[in-house]
Amino acid sequence: MKPNMGLVEGRPYLDRGRMEPLTFAVLAGFTPEEHEVHLCDDRFEPVPWSGGWDLVGVNVEVYTARRAYEIADRFRAMGVKVVLGGCHVSLAPEEAAGHADAIALGDLDAGWREVVADAAAGRLRPRYAAPPACRAGPVEGVRTRWEIFRGKRYLPIALTQLSRGCHGACEYCATGSLYRGALHLRPPAEVVEELRRHGRRLVFFVDDNVVSDRAAALALFRALAPLRVRWTGQASLAFAGDPELLDAMMESGCAGLVVGFESRDPANLAAMNKRSNLAFGGYDALVERMRAAGLMVWAAFLLGYDHETPASVRETVAWALSKKFAFSAFNVLTPYPGTPFYARMQAEGRLRYGGRWWLHDDYRFGDVAFEPRHMAAGELSALGLEARLRHASPWQILRRATDRKTNSKDLWSLATYLAYNPLFRGEMLKKHGMTLGYRGYERG
Q1: pLDDT digit string (tens) for 31-57?
Q2: Nearest to 203 by CA among 159, 156, 234, 161
Q3: Separation in Å, CA 385 to CA 77, 155, 364, 424, 430
Q4: What is the domain-level CATH number for residue 87?
C-alpha cells in the first residue's frame, strides 16, 4: 500500500507527477510465488477495504505517516494483519508500532519472505529488523517485478537503483541517519541486465547519490551505453569535477540529474555538515562544466539554516535563474525525526507543533516546523513559496527554454522541459497548504 499525503481543499490530493513506487516491485520480487500480490496506490485509486486480504503492508514516509496510520488502523479494526515499514518507521519505530501488528526496520529485502511466512502460519512477530547498516553486505538477488504496475497510471519512467545509503553525514538528512555513512551496492551488471530484460528505455535511478562509489558508477555507465537508454538520477557535485566520470555518464545516456547545491553560503554548508560541497571552490565553474556537457540540471536548495536571511534566499533564487537550470527545488529545511538536526532543534527548544509536526492538526504542507534564527517561521515559509513561484513563473520557464546547451539542445530535451515544467509548477501550487491525512474524509 502506497499512502496518499492528504487533502487539498477537502478532497484527496491527486498527484499528476507520480512515479512507480519501486519499493513494492522489489518486495513483490521477494514474495514467494504461491502468494498473490496486489498493489494499491492510494494516491489515485480507492483502497480495496473489502478485498479479503490476509496481510497488508504499508510504506510510511514522514509526510504520509498520518494517512498511513489511518489506513493501518482501519484494516486492523477489520481484523486484517498490518505490517508497517519504510523510512519513517525506521526513524520513529515506537510511534509506528502503535498502529501495526508488526513493523519492519531497515532494508528487509529477503527478510520479507520471513514476514510473509510468519503471517501465513499465524505467528507474526511484532518487530522484524534488517542487519545494522554498518554490517549489511551488498544488495544482491533483487528481482524487480515491474508487472505489478501494469495497468496503472504512472509517468512513463522506470525506477531502479544501484546503491542504497550515502557516505555523507549531513545533519538534516534522514538517509544519513538510517545508513550512518554506509553504502550498499547492487552489482552493476545485475542492474543493467534487469533493464535489458525488461526493455525499459527511460529510467530514473533513485540512489541518493548515484556516483557515491566511483568504480561502481563507471562500471554501470559503461555497461549502460550499449542499451541506448535515457536516464536521470541524483548525484553529488563530485561528478562535475571528474572529467572521466562526467564523460562516461553522458555517453551512457544521462539526460539530467538532481544535484544538491543546498546553499551558496559556506557557513550554512559547514553547519549542515555538507563540507563536500566546499571542496570545489565556487559553484560557477562546476555549473559551466555541466552546461558544456549538455546536462539538464534539477538544482536542489535547502532554505532556512542558521545563517539564512531573507536577502540570502532571494540571492539564491537570482543565482539559480542566472544559470538557467531546467528545474529547481527550493526546499524549506524540515526537522525529520531521528536526525541530528531534529535532536538539535529539540535540545534548543526550537521545534514547533509539539515536535511531531507530521501528526499535528494545525500543520500544513509548506509550513516551517522549527524556529529559524533570523526570521519568523511564517516568513521562511512565505519565502520558500516566493522562491518556487519566481523560478517557475511562465515567463521564467520560457526564458530558460532558450538555453541551447541544455534545455533545448535537441527536440527530446526541449519537449521534456516544456512538458514537465508546467506539470511541476501545478503540483507545487496544489500541494502548498495541503492537510496531511484524510481526517475522517473517507466514507464507506
Answers
A1: 998 999 999 999 999 999 998 999 999
A2: 159
A3: 40, 25, 13, 14, 12
A4: 3.40.50.280
